[in-house]
């Protein structure tokens, strides 16, 4: 099982996190939404907020739980099953929270802020794109996430099945089932389920029903008296 260690980048991570959180606390940036923030960072935070509130009606979008962090990494393709696994994602989340607590005595130990989120992504980026520099690796990971939203599971589509189509084709019905539908495939209702007694006086199957009435009532105009 692969793992991610923060030791080689611990000082670098501390410096980056310290600068980012200091900027945020000074009011020059609202979690990456300041006026000087590049467009791509705004797109990144928008995705952060979408995943942060997923499944939690009380969430504000400013902090993200570990479950939603893992979903983001999965839905956006950060987890590839090779360089980055779900275990790596969980380890980085825990270590970034611990680092934040050690540096700033952050009270909450269950969530990460947007600034901590970017630090965590940076750790995963260096492992996912080992052939790239730190900044280039981060940029690649950011691209995977920007503009994305949580994938909603459990939504299924009705798929046409030849077997189902054959079983529901009323033109192929036989016997008593055939009698329940007309030529257009529309149900006949009670008439298709119950034998209705014919009280007309004609024998069943008689083809000349009504012809006598037509002869009797035939107009006599033009006939010799």
Tally of DSSP helical segments? 9
Number of strands: 2
N- and C-termini, Cα separation: 112 Å
Outline the biggest β-sheet.
2 strands, antiparallel
Estimated helix fraction: 40-55%
Note the beta-strand portion. under 5%
Globular, elongated, flat, extended or rod-shaped: what is the shape? Answer: rod-shaped
Order of helices and strands: HHEHHEHHHHH
Q: Which strand order do you get reading across the main beta sheet?
A: 1-2
What is the residue-averaged pLDDT? 74
Residue windows where pLDDT falls under 50 for at least 5 positions: 1-9, 24-40
Describe this structure in words.
The chain has 225 residues and is an all-alpha fold. It is built from nine helices and two strands; from the N terminus they run ααβααβααααα. Strands 1-2 form a two-stranded antiparallel sheet. Helix 3 (66-75) crosses helix 4. The longest helix has 19 residues, at 86-104. It is rod-shaped and about 110 Å long. Mean pLDDT is 74; it is low at 1-9 and 24-40.
Short summary:
Residues 1-37 are annotated as: Disordered. The chain has 225 residues and is mainly alpha-helical.
Task: Describe the secondary structure blueprint for this structure.
Blueprint: H1 10-25, H2 39-52, E1 63-65, H3 66-75, H4 86-104, E2 111-113, H5 114-128, H6 134-145, H7 162-167, H8 175-178, H9 211-216
Antiparallel strand pairs: 1-2
Helix pairs in contact: 1-5, 3-4, 4-5, 5-6
What attributes does this structure have?
disordered N terminus, rod-shaped, two-stranded antiparallel sheet, EF-hand-dom_pair, Tubulin polymerization promoting protein, 9 helices, 2 strands, 45% helix, mainly alpha, TPP/p25, 225 residues
């Amino acid at each position: 099982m692969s793992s991610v260690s923060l030791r080689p980048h611990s000082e670098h991570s501390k410096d980056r996190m310290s600068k980012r959180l200091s900027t945020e606390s000074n009011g020059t940036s609202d979690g990456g939404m300041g006026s000087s923030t590049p467009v791509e960072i705004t797109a990144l935070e928008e995705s952060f907020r979408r995943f942060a509130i997923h499944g939690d009606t009380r969430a504000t979008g400013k902090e993200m739980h570990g479950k939603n962090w893992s979903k983001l990494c999965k839905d956006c393709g950060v987890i590839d099953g090779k360089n980055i696994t779900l275990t790596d994602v969980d380890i980085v989340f825990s270590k970034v929270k611990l680092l934040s607590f050690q540096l700033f005595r952050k009270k909450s130990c269950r969530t990460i802020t947007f600034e901590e989120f970017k630090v965590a992504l940076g750790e995963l980026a260096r492992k996912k794109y080992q052939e790239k520099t730190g900044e280039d690796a981060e940029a690649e990971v950011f691209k995977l996430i920007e503009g994305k939203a949580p994938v909603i599971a459990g939504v299924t589509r009705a798929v046409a099945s030849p077997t189902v189509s054959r079983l529901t084709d009323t033109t192929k019905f036989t016997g008593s089932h055939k009698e329940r539908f007309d030529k257009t495939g529309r149900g006949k209702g009670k008439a298709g389920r119950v034998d209705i007694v014919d009280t007309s006086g004609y024998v069943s199957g008689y083809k000349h029903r009504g012809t006598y009435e037509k002869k009797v009532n035939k107009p006599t105009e033009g006939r010799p008296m």
